[in-house]
Amino acid sequence: MRIRLPMMILLPVLAAMGLNGCAWLAPPPGIGGAVAWRDLPAWERDHHAESWPALLRSCERLANRDQSWARICAAAHDLSAPDDTQARKFFETWFTPHKVRGAGWRNRGMITGYYEPLLRGRFTPSPRFRYPIYGRPKDLVTVDLSQLYPDLKDKRVRGILKGSKVVPYYDRRQIDTQQELLAGEELLWVDDPVALFFLHIQGSGRVELPDGSMVAVGYADQNGHPYRSIGRELINMGELAREDVTMFTIRDWLRDNAHRADALLHRNPSYVFFAMRPAHQDGPVGSLNVPLTAQRSVAVDRGVIPLGVPVWLDTTRPGADSEPYRRLVLAQDTGGAIKGAVRADLFWGHGAAAERMAGLMKQPGRLFVLLPRQTNGK
Fold first, then answer.
1. Intra-chain end-to-end CA distance of the chain, in Å
2. pLDDT recorded at residue 152
3. pLDDT confidence of residue 77
């Protein structure tokens, strides 16, 4: 005999068990079922043709993935320079939109921004230029276990070989305080340790040399230690209120508290290594291994959203007016802090305007993923 309890009785029981009734019944976070195009806010008002170069760059990596992408990319190359209407109809023909679900029925998450900072540096050290940008160390070992354990796809262990064992690689504090550990791996030397730290956060940047010429660096690898937000550390220390944390307030705190800056920075053990890249390149290369497009490329959690796919971004522009910011972007990058289903980091480009927007962006938003149709695009 089954006993059916009314929900008004069941909810207090769940609460007593430490469970929230709604969260208990909610589907897991991730990509949900298909929705209609009209469910994408302001879909018809975007300048869809502006996303076309980013789509073609995704096709450089996805065209050989499966038949669906092969057909999509062949059709995209045939439509060489579409206008906004043609581009929009292309996406509507070849893709199906899906809402991205958050945890506990929450479909809004955090949308942040990043950009290419400009640093001052040179190829040899001096009393002024004494902070190194390191290339990927020769003794950094990467272990890929995905062939033995498919569940660990895209999960790599990094470390250093000590005898017959792989042990954790040096953390930020060790690298900063014992420069002999990475002697000979320096690519450039810069004059500002705070700017160097934010270069690690952004993952790429440009460096102006004393003669006025420009070089560029991009992400090469990471030391294997988890990323830890120093903004969150400052909140926990009572130094900044949560609502006041931006790149600019963090940077100001580091400069105003120079005697405490190193201790704070070392709370983030993650360390990024770089490679030289052409300064004239359109944008830095993301995790998809294609150049990023300003305001049309985003970093996502690749465990939730496949790299390369189009994503409809529904958020607001940073600033007091909270103006809607809705556009088609491509998932072409990842980041140590970009974890979770409804989570994205928008690439703004380089320059003062990009720095301001990326530094302030901390907006609530929704994501819709465009997945290939399964029936020849019809």
1. 50
2. 62
3. 95
CA distance 72 to 69: 5
Domains identified in the chain, total number: 1
Average pLDDT, the chain: 90
Tally of CA atoms within 13 A in the half-sphere of 316 that contains its CB: 12
Please indicate, yes or no, if residue 266 is contained in any of the structural domains.
Answer: yes
Q: By residue range, what is the domain housing residue 345?
A: 109-135+187-370
Is 272 a member of any domain? yes
Between helices 193-202 and 247-256, what is the axis angle to 10°? 150
pLDDT in tens, 4-56: 444 444 445 444 444 454 555 677 889 999 999 999 999 999 999 999 999 99
Whole-number Cα distances in Å, 199 to 223, 313, 355:
15, 25, 12
Q: Is residue 192 predicted with pLDDT exceeding 60? A: yes
pLDDT at 281: 74
Q: CA–CA separation, 278 vs 287, rounded Å?
A: 17
